[in-house]
Amino acid sequence: FGIVGAIAGWFILPKTVNLSKDKSFDLRGALLLGPMLTAFMLVLNEGHAWGVTSPAYIVAAIAGLALLFFFIKAERRAETPLLNPRLFKQLPFTAANAGSLMSYALLFGIMLLMPFVFENGYHDTPLQAGLRLAIIPIAISLVAPISGLLFDRFGPRLPTLTGMLTCAAALIVLFFTLGEARADLLGVMIALGIFGVGQGLFTAANNTAIMAAAPADLTGEAGGLLNVTRAFGISLGIASASLVLSLQLEAMGDATGSTFHATPDDLLAA
């Protein structure tokens, strides 16, 4: 699929115009960006294992913040910045990226936690759990084209706001339908389907809004930032969900915080 996409893009996508060839690559920004993202990822993914008072956590957190400071300073001075500060002067662009971060964090938090609930709480097989969870991406793929049509007709506000409100409603339904009996599974599946509909409405319109809000000469940087935001949101969601699950299990008497030793009641409560 990647090869097919690359070939199609070569023939279909328009060529970039007014591309200056005498500007240098922002090497300083690139050298700061990689370690900065790595430090923040370590804080998110390893923070609970290390402990917030551990030297490793403190060093990673301070390093990430320091690198962020120097990265912003370098980008403001760079002739051709890796991440142009002009992008963030557009409020719709900044707000849409923040929404994207939260959306992917929420999505992958759910995707991480629900398999444990299905397998340990409802005693599903891995195949059954996977099929149940597939309702979310299926709903997203079915609703995303509708979101695009709504964006074209009404702009970004209607589909994005409706999508997030739908996700919130789905989480409320999920909270009240999760139970110990397999009879509760129908309500859980309905809640996950509603959640997928909300994600489909929000994501497609929000991504389009991000690219539309970016200046024409900065669409490349905007697309790159969108991908970084997506990856960071995924990591944030997985790390946050793992932390909440582990802390909840520990509070219920499992000193290891492991799902292998958790009872179905503990998992459903978490």
UniProtKB/TrEMBL annotation:
Q: Which residues cross the membrane?
A: 56-74, 95-118, 130-151, 158-179, 185-205
Query: Which is one Gene Ontology cellular component term of this protein?
Result: plasma membrane
Keywords of the record: Cell membrane, Membrane, Transmembrane, Transmembrane helix, Transport
Q: Entry's InterPro entries?
A: MFS, MFS_dom, MFS_trans_sf
What Gene3D superfamilies does its record include?
MFS general substrate transporter like domains
Q: Please give the PROSITE patterns that the UniProt record associates with this protein.
A: MFS
The membrane topology term of the UniProt record is: Multi-pass membrane protein
Q: What is this protein called?
A: Major facilitator superfamily (MFS) profile domain-containing protein
* PANTHER family for this protein: BLR6921 PROTEIN, MAJOR FACILITATOR SUPERFAMILY MULTIDRUG TRANSPORTER MFSC
